[in-house]
Specification:
The chain is an alpha/beta fold. It has 10 helices and 12 strands.
């Protein structure tokens, strides 16, 4: 398993090509070699690839707008070829589908052809969870319905923070989805004045010993560090602190 930076963490510093270049350079100097492309501004894939190459970064996966995945599948695939990324991710279940078994099934049905086309191109569609997937519908968790409806051709970018936030066990879900979780999102969870907050890795309360063991068992390829909210801290510092903590804890 290799560590990467989820660029959504520094999304406010990726809006223009010039800013993206500065950000990529900083991420490379921190010590990351892999990134997930998410939250960047309207920059051409060729320019993103060149900037990342110049900074010693490789793109493994993206979060791509769901309408583009479904309606512009061929172009999305070509963009990912340019980026060098084999994984095409969606950040969430679009709200218009609702949070029900029927909504999950309709989502899977409407994305089925795009998922198949992505697979034929030698790439993989990836679904990223939040906490709402741990609501029950029809006696089962929404995440269970999604896993069944999407089928084995679809993978999951399991976000350990959001699993915990939904009342699930991250290690258990890594084991349940083994074979479909080539990438995970690492962020920690802490409590401040009764409020649940995101934290740098190993500075919160998640059971990292079990999470690491489950990642190893599930043969996870990448752990992307993401911190949606840094609560006034510099997000680059948060990414660096997480990487240093992980390097001290366990090397891969």
């Amino acid at each position: 398993m290799e560590y990467g930076a989820q660029l959504y963490t520094v999304r406010n510093f990726c809006k223009t090509e010039a800013d993206f270049a500065k950000t990529a350079e900083k991420i490379g100097k921190i010590g990351y070699r892999w990134v997930q492309l998410s939250g960047a501004g309207p920059i051409q894939p060729k320019r993103i690839r060149r900037i990342c190459d110049d900074s010693g970064l490789r793109i493994a996966i993206t979060h791509t707008a769901q309408d583009r995945i479904r309606l512009e599948t061929a172009q999305v695939i070509e963009d990912h070829r340019v980026l060098g990324a084999d994984y095409i991710g969606v950040g969430s279940l679009p709200g218009e589908y609702g949070r029900t078994k029927e909504g999950a099934e309709r989502f899977a049905e409407e994305f089925a052809e795009a998922i198949a086309e992505i697979g034929r191109a030698g790439m993989k569609f990836m679904y990223h969870n939040h906490d709402f997937e741990f609501e029950k519908s029809g006696g089962r968790l929404l995440l269970e319905h999604l896993a069944d409806a999407l089928g084995e051709n679809a993978g999951f970018t399991l976000d350990v923070y959001w699993v915990q936030a939904g009342g699930g066990d991250p290690a258990q879900w890594l084991e349940k989805l083994a074979g479909r979780v080539d990438a995970v999102h690492f962020k920690d969870m802490t409590m401040v004045n009764g409020e649940r907050r995101m934290a740098e890795i190993l500075e919160g309360n998640l059971n990292w010993e079990r999470i690491y063991a489950a990642c190893e068992k599930a043969k996870v390829k990448w752990a992307f560090v993401e911190q949606d909210d840094c609560y006034g801290k510099n997000p680059f510092d948060c990414l660096e602190n997480s990487l240093r903590n992980m390097e001290k804890y366990r090397k891969y």
